[in-house]
Amino acid sequence: MFAVRGIYDGKRVKIIEPVNKNKKYRVVVTFLEEVTDDEQEIRDFASRTEGFDFWENTAEDIYQDYIPQKKDKK
User: Fold this and answer.
1) DSSP-assigned letter for residue 22
2) Nearest 5°: phi and psi at 60?
């Protein structure tokens, strides 16, 4: 079992976090709190922006070479 965030707009539930689309899941929808108009606009923008798509790009992994590696403390 795992949880993902979503928003219900009065007609449908929109999941706003990644989920494996190649599997089927049973779900339980729990309404936590009402979303204000300001929060809704922010969430809509965040779900559409491509500002973090670089995390999915393997070419960006080259920058890991410049991050100092921590040595295991045993």
Assistant:
1) T
2) -75, -15
Q: Which helix (H) or strand (E) holds 40?
A: helix 37-48
Total-model pTM: 0.41
Tens of pLDDT, residue by residue over 23-46, are: 898 988 888 877 777 766 767 766
Dihedral angle over CA of 47, 53, 2, 37, nearest 10: -10
43 CB-near residues (< 8 Å, 6+ apart): 7, 16, 35
- List C-alpha distances in Å: 70 to 9, 55, 61, 63, 64: 45, 22, 18, 16, 13
Can you read off the two tokens belonging to residue 52?
Answer: 């973090």
